[in-house]
Write a structure and sequence with these properties.
Number of helices: 12
CATH architecture of the largest domain: Alpha-Beta Complex
Number of strands: 10
Largest sheet: 6 strands, mixed
Distance between the termini: 54 Å
Low-confidence stretches: none
CATH class of the largest domain: Alpha Beta
CATH superfamily of the largest domain: 2-enoyl-CoA Hydratase, Chain A, domain 1
CATH topology of the largest domain: 2-enoyl-CoA Hydratase, Chain A, domain 1
Shape: globular
Number of domains: 2
Structural class: alpha/beta
Length: 267
């Protein structure tokens, strides 16, 4: 069974994550398959719009932490399949992507939703920016990039969960649907895009992406320093605790006095 199902036709590529037994969690095989599929989509002269969805009760649960624990490394690791060039992740596609969220979108799965140009979700879907649970710095950039208020962005950065209904009210989602109408709704949006003059579709997409908010360089430098602030052993401990279904035993700081040495923004 393929970890990624692909349909092609009428100018549309449908990519469907297909590891339902693992809630479509991202392992090297799936990361590699996605990189290859998005490269095909980018280079195709026949496919102009993509629909991105999942199988089962999740869109994507993010990193496959059981596999991370088995490897003994965090994140994507060093497997070459995990590090193939991926035009969707790199933001180098010049074709629109519609994400159709069929269930849980957590951690890296939330980030896959965030990168899409248009977003449809089933009612009751659950979203979480999970960095604060797994890394030494929470998902500080998601609310900013999503043009969400600072208070809600702070809630998002601290890995609180959001329902599809709330994210729709906040303007993060374009459409809410019942499960049976998820893909038809996404296809209706794709069909509309395909009625536009090709240059209009490409140029408007380029302009809208250029207008997306981004984190200033000085704040990214602060984030880089904050990612080094704390006991690195907690990164793997968070994953081990998840895999073993127990409460984590975090160390916090390699040296207690580091608690009071938090890097600050240089002004």
């Amino acid at each position: 069974m393929s970890v990624l199902d692909i349909e092609r036709g009428d100018g549309i590529m449908v990519l469907r994550l297909n590891r339902p037994e693992r809630m479509n969690a991202l392992n090297p095989e799936l990361r590699g398959a996605l990189a290859e599929a998005w490269t095909e989509f980018r280079d195709s002269r026949d496919l102009e719009v993509a629909i991105f969805t999942g199988t089962g009760r999740a869109f994507c649960a993010g990193e496959d932490m059981k596999e991370s624990v088995a490897r003994g490394t965090v994140g994507a690791g060093t497997d070459p399949r995990s590090n193939l060039p991926n035009p969707y992740n790199d933001g180098t596609l010049d074709k629109p992507v519609i994400v159709a969220v069929n269930g849980y979108a957590m951690g890296g799965g939330f980030m896959l939703v965030e990168r899409a140009d248009l977003r449809v979700a089933v009612r009751g879907a659950t979203f979480e920016s999970s960095e604060a649970k797994r890394w030494l710095l929470g998902g500080y950039h998601h609310g900013h990039q999503g043009n969400i208020s600072h208070t809600v962005g702070t809630e998002m950065a601290f890995a609180f969960r959001f329902t599809a209904e709330r994210l729709y009210e906040l303007g993060f989602l374009n459409r809410l649907t019942d499960a049976e109408n998820l893909i038809p709704t996404a296809r209706e949006m794709a069909a509309h895009l395909l009625t536009l003059p090709p240059a209009s579709r490409v140029n408007t997409l380029t302009m809208m992406r250029a207008m997306r908010p981004h984190v200033p360089d000085e704040l990214e430098e602060l984030a880089r320093r904050l990612k080094e602030h704390g006991a690195k052993s907690d990164l793997m401990e968070s994953r081990k605790a998840f895999a073993e279904k127990r409460a984590p035993n975090f160390k916090g700081w390699d040296h207690p006095e580091d608690r009071f040495r938090t890097p600050k923004l240089k002004r």
